Amino acid sequence: MGHLKLAWRNLLHRPARTGLTVVGIALAVAVAVSLIGFNVGYRESINTSIDKLGFQVMLMAKGCPYEAATMMLKGGTGLLYLPTSTFDEVQNDPEIAAITPIFIGVAEKEGSGIRDDSASSFAILSGIETDSFLAMKPWLSFSQAPGAAGSRWFAKESPDEIVMGYEVAEFEQRKVGDSFYATVTPQGSTEPVTHQFRVVGILERTGTQDDGTVFLPLSTARKIFNRPDELTIVGIKLREFSGVKLREFEKRWAKLPEVQVVSLQQVKTTLVSLVETAQTMIAAVAIIAIIVAIIGVINTILMSVAERTGEIGIMKAIGASRSDIFQLIWAETLIICLAGGVLGCLTSMLGSRGVEAALRMLIDVGAHGSIVAITPAILAGALAGATALGVFAGLYPAWRASSLRPIEAIREGE
Amino acid sequence: MKSENDTTMTDIVLEAQGLTKSYRRGSETVHALSGVDLTIRAGEMVSILGPSGSGKTTLINLLSCLDAPDAGVLSIAGRSVSGLGEEALTEVRRGRIGYVFQKFHLLPALTVAENVELPQMFLGRPVDRARTMELLRLVGLEDRAGHLPRELSGGQMQRVAIARALIVQPKILIADEPTGNLDRVNGEAIFALFRQLIETERLAVIVTTHNHALGSRADRIITLEDGRIVREEAGAASIGSPA
Questions:
Q1: Contact between A405 and B86 using a beta-carbon 8 Å cutoff
Q2: What is the pTM of this model?
């Protein structure tokens, strides 16, 4: 029998105390892993979402660029519009590799009166020109689900054909050939008008806002919103994307009234920094949890040492050296912390979906796909951290136990 | 046969001269031991008798290297232990001395066999399960090897404690009131076991006890009073008439 086995047996002999301490550490580890997972996952998610917009630069009406960018990522209301002439002027810029006009509008869905307070009672309608839009997003493809059989893009000027993103089709339980009703209040009118569309295609899941979007021809979208000469954004891909080229491009088009040039790289940075504030708060909670766990472990082991003073004296009397006692108590602390680490990692893995749902409720994250990414590297780091916690927290109790003089310890224990 | 026995009785395993120990109790100094001289030989059983507070436990603690004397010289199995620090005393204790407590003090989380093997672990030796079973057979508990201490009677626990003390093959077995928590039958069984060990393992056994009847079964009886040896006499074993 070695020190580890003896430590293990001692811990099993006090299951309630051992269990509670392990759970305390597990909670601290789970919080830390979830936080780091959120940090990593959110950045990846924002990067993916923005990269999958397909363009690096947007032209949009003057206003808050980040609000507009966020709207592109997660939908929203209060849209601003820019004149179509902007597109006509900019499209011949020699630095542009690809350009696409987009008109976004928000429609009320049929039956929304039942759930007026629900965001899902609105649908994002995105008017696009399929040729230029698909040049920006070559990865878009149609779903292979049975309900999506026969999918195709709508005809260029079709007044009633739409293609639905994967999630919106699933949520609305629509398949190819079904009808979709959208109620729109046209510009200059107060009377909402309900339009009937026919689903001609359902897209494969992309993990971006496209999954929640209903696509229709640009001309049809502008017509039903009564904004025949307006666009929401112009997406642009530059031949060469760099800070210098972007500034040159911005400078060239600053002359356009009511239009701003927004780099999606800036949007990324800003969105990440917005959430960093919340992350700092969560980090503070995690650090407090870890400190509480350390104090809890030290306290538990010290109590265990105090409770077993007599036992430690006995072990010394029958031949245990200071080193033996130190190793034994240290091993107990390490086992507790490692068990807590493993349990915490498992908890965070199993609970990542719940954490993600809670974070989405607490923070307006503006990103699609998973925002909590618990990677093997994070788990390995958490286990290493738990080991370090055990090494550190075990030092003092182990030193104290090993310093006990056998006679006094036995006497105290009696 | 007699001459062979005489020869072995000259092997000194423990020698103490002028052992003195005092304690502070508040502002008062308690002289627990004052100049105790003692010599123990291999194959000899010595009982230390005396009333409570006479210094029996203090003497036992010094002889077992659990405590250091204020003055005096102590030699265990040929090694002087005077002036040694705690770690060095541990070294002496773990290979030469087996210790048996009044309250058995088995570790509750370990089985009988594991309790017996514990000193081997502290010595860094591999577990010798055959030796463990041999000792458990010797103390009559071979069938209890996998039991936990709480499943044993007091007498059985004390026999496990004796097996634990013997696992490292000590030169001296020191027992502090080993029958103090046992009934008469179990007490007698423990003393009979000590006698058996002296014969089979050629141990020196030092026992403190309040029980004069049991104590008198030793080869030599030492009586302590106020920290001094006031009487030393041959026990029943040495004159061949067990009590």
A1: yes
A2: 0.68
